[in-house]
Design goal:
The chain is an alpha/beta fold and 218 residues long. The protein is 56% helix and 13% strand. The protein has 10 helices and 6 strands, in the order E-H-E-H-E-H-E-H-E-H-E-H-H-H-H-H.
Length: 218
């Protein structure tokens, strides 16, 4: 990847200087411009038509990062915008992406993640910090619980199998306990994963706890 021209937008000068030094050490930055707020970001975009990436804080005076991202997208669809913020709530993350951001990092990031994020967005991909992915996934999962409760109906036999799975019994052990073939148990396990939209056993355990099928002892 060719070195990029980058705007670093954050209202804390000391943080910007430290981050600028870190970014230059990656070797992927050519020109780097500083902005204290969203208005200065727009001014820099008007002055320099070769900007590739904007590293955007959210909480800034004059114009915050969310509004700045919206305004940037009205005049430039090509520049990549990566949020870099202490704000790790779902609302801020969603608002940044809805406004047009390509990536989201938290301020506990490091040089390698910064470089990876820039490289990925320049390739046309979205980039989520691991913590951000966890926040979005967990929130989406919690939002889906109500609809799952209403739509999923488990038979008594499936509930028995689910309880035994939660108690860490293998398919072979469950088959012996319920006097069913191991193939039948595997079929019920697969059906449980599909019905509850779980990706693995951990998801089944969570579903069982949320729906009162298995008590949470932890």
């Amino acid at each position: 990847m060719n070195p990029v021209n980058l705007i670093l937008a954050d209202d804390h000068a000391i943080f910007r200087k430290g981050l600028a030094l870190t970014l230059r050490r990656t070797g992927i930055v050519d020109k780097l411009f500083h902005a204290e707020n969203g208005l200065e970001v727009l001014e820099l975009l008007n002055l320099h038509d070769t900007i590739d990436v904007i590293i955007m804080d959210i909480r800034m005076p004059e114009m915050d990062g969310i509004e700045a991202t919206r305004q940037v997208r009205k005049i430039n669809q090509q520049v990549k915008i990566v949020a870099l913020s202490m704000m790790n709530d779902r609302a801020s993350i969603n608002l940044m992406f809805k406004s047009g951001a390509n990536g989201y990092l938290l301020k506990n990031t490091n040089k390698l993640e910064l470089q990876d994020a820039i490289e990925q967005v320049m390739l046309g991909n979205r980039y989520f910090a691991r913590e951000v992915t966890d926040i979005l996934y967990n929130a989406e999962y919690q939002d889906s619980i109500a609809s799952l409760n209403a739509s999923v109906e488990l038979s008594q036999s499936e509930k028995e199998v689910l309880q035994l799975i939660c108690n860490q019994y293998s398919s072979r052990e469950i088959s012996e306990m319920l006097c069913l073939s191991e193939k039948t148990i595997e079929g019920k396990r697969k059906s449980l994963l599909e019905k509850t939209r779980s990706k693995n056993t951990a998801g089944l355990v969570w579903y069982a706890i949320e729906n009162g099928i298995m008590k949470n002892n932890g």
